[in-house]
Amino acid sequence: MQATIAVVAGDGVGPEVVEQGLLALAAIGERYGHSFDMQHALIGGAAIDATGSPLPDETLAVCDNADAILLGAVGGPKWSDPTAPVRPEQGLLAIRKRYGLFANLRPVFTSPALAAYSPLRPELLQDVDMLFVRELTGGIYFGKRQEMDKSGAASDELRYTVKEVERVARVAFEAARNRRKRVASVDKANVLASSRLWRKTVVDVSSDYPDVELEHVLVDACTMYLIRQPSRFDVILTTNMFGDILSDEASVLAGSLGMLPSASLSEGTKGLYEPIHGSAPDIAGRGIANPTGTLLSCAMMLRYSFKLEEEAQALEAAVHQTLEAGHRTADISVPGESPLNTQDFGSRILAQLTHQKM
């Protein structure tokens, strides 16, 4: 197949980890006979410095013509003023809105090889394999907002429509059908009107999926269960803000933010793929960032945008085999180990890809 990928590496460690993702995609293309055309563009702080905009027209043109988008990270101390009229994260929010990327998928898994790097006891990590499905273009992040007025008040509107909830709920139920057939819908229906709409709509959608078990979990209870009983979850369906917070909480189960990928999907095949970690300005430029999240995001791209399941599994297997072989970057190493830099760790994964049987 032939596909065009918009590459928006962004800020901080973004370019370093994206480079490893591109090498892996090139290796997949060579191995399986695919052609991936990589088109590079600016986003975030780097784009602000170059053009004054976090998402310039040139970048939009590249993304408009692409089949999928690979993002590194945006932001950093240079652009951290929350009151600034132009900020790096505005570019990411604008991309989500422009392409209707309403469903954010974040898998969270644990590996026996990395049990020592998680803050939880190893016995709590057994069989942890969950998928967050987070609504991404509605809710409080996109509602009307009022900055602080003369009376000293500010407000943010939390609003959802039935249609918005229906479409993301269907993504969650469809995903559960290919997993362990359980959906936990997380809300705050005992307090919020928007959550009561959310819960009723999810129940209505669930009638089309009688083979999938549905449970409702209040968000405060969910924060506890993720630490005390993380293996109880299969698919977690939740709102924009709750999903943002809960998936970051759950990410520590894997041992490092650098480990986990994400996919933001539209109603078509176009999607944006990015690691869940930020720009990590404290280590940017040192060549020690963990590229695992980016590599697994590339695997999600192969699966969801290009429908290349065998290729996605091959890349995922190469990553896991590399970890099982004991290779580590600094964020998942312990005293006494000699961690690999970003490039060397990526090279180990490429070697695993090369030696896999087809």
Uncertain parts: none
CATH class of the largest domain: Alpha Beta
Tell me how many strands there are: 12
Shape: globular
Class by SSE composition: alpha/beta
Tally of separate domains = 2
Distance between the termini: 18 Å
- Fraction of residues in helix: 25-40%
Order of helices and strands: EHEHHEHEEEEHEHEHEHEEHHH
Total helical elements: 11
**CATH architecture term of the largest domain:** 3-Layer(aba) Sandwich
Outline the biggest β-sheet: 10 strands, mixed
Strand order, largest beta sheet: 2-1-3-12-11-4-5-10-8-9
Our Rg estimate from Cα atoms comes to 20 Å
Average pLDDT:
94
Stated plainly, the CATH topology of the largest domain is called: Isopropylmalate Dehydrogenase
The CATH homologous superfamily of the largest domain: Isopropylmalate Dehydrogenase
Work out the strand percent: 15-25%
